[in-house]
Design goal:
Structural class: alpha/beta
Helix content: 25-40%
Order of helices and strands: HEEEHEEEHEHHEEEEHEHEH
Number of strands: 13
Number of helices: 8
Radius of gyration: 30 Å
Largest sheet: 7 strands, parallel
Shape: globular
Distance between the termini: 69 Å
């Protein structure tokens, strides 16, 4: 199709106007620059800050977990019956301390405000009659798990205890309570529930003004027993060969499990804890 020069000129002008600018007959000049309207500023809220609630954060294991979480830039709150810890280390002032009793939900539910993950520390002091041990290690933990699920908490890590064969029968209420709490956790948090089952946890433990260096015993035992896994399968007495684990290792794995969304849910035994703390081979 053949067009005249004048019709082509009109065509180019119309095309130029449609593209948002007016071009002169000289292709190297722009009569009027294209003016884009300023984009509307949208107020997008920042991503939610991770907040970890440690139930029992002023104890031996709990304090190490609080310290580990703070070192990773995580906001940390602690709930315990005594409230604020007696620890005078500088990091303790960065913890949001709450006082409450897990058996009385009204006394502590506000501590769950803004929490993204919950860490429940094994209550090693919950000994007594069988019914009392079940209440402290079972009912109290089940209350915490249900309350966290109702609040929409995404992840829940429960530091339980390894089986010790004959010891389980001697402390029946203790272990039955823990296993009931574990079942409830896996039911309420099928994709975000992690259970750690360490054995003897060693490290420097504070008892009043004293410091007990449990690592003097625990560290050599760990080095020996972690290579004696087949002994762990011996009926009844086999679990007594479960290797101890450093409290720092437990804290690192616990915080990772609470904050890493790809950390697999389920039960992690002592060998799994040791495996997660091993340096990655290059």
């Amino acid at each position: 199709m053949i067009h005249s020069r004048s019709s082509l000129s009109r065509f180019y002008k119309a095309t130029a106007f449609r593209n948002g600018r007016c071009l002169s007959t000289d292709s190297n000049k722009v009569d009027e620059p294209f003016k884009a309207e300023e984009a509307e500023i949208v107020d997008i809220p920042p991503p939610p800050t991770e907040k970890l609630l440690v139930l029992g954060g002023n104890g031996f294991v709990g304090s190490h977990i609080c310290k580990e979480a703070l070192s990773r830039g995580i906001s940390v709150a602690s709930l315990s019956r005594s409230g604020r810890s007696s620890i005078n280390d500088p990091w303790a002032s960065s913890i949001e301390w709450h006082q409450g009793n897990l058996l009385s939900s009204d006394s502590w539910k506000e501590a769950l405000s803004g929490v993204t993950s919950v860490m429940r520390i094994s209550c090693v002091g919950g000994f007594g009659s069988s019914s009392y041990m079940y209440k402290i290690n079972g009912s109290a933990n089940i209350n915490a798990i249900r309350a966290a699920a109702e609040k929409g908490v995404k992840r829940f890590v429960y530091i339980s205890a390894a089986d010790f064969g004959v010891v389980n029968y001697l402390l029946k209420g203790y272990y039955e309570g823990k296993r009931a709490a574990e079942r409830e956790l896996l039911n309420k948090f099928p994709y975000g529930g992690v259970i750690l089952r360490p054995g003897f946890i060693y490290g420097t433990r504070r008892v009043g003004s004293m410091k007990l260096p449990l690592g003097v015993i625990g560290s050599p035992l760990e080095m020996v027993l972690k290579h004696a896994k087949p002994m762990n399968q011996v009926p009844l007495v086999g679990p007594l060969f479960t290797p101890p684990v450093n409290v720092t290792s437990v804290a690192k794995v616990a915080v990772r499990a609470a904050t890493d969304t790809v950390f697999p849910p389920g039960i992690i035994d002592v060998y799994g804890i040791l495996r997660y703390t091993q340096p990655k081979s290059s």
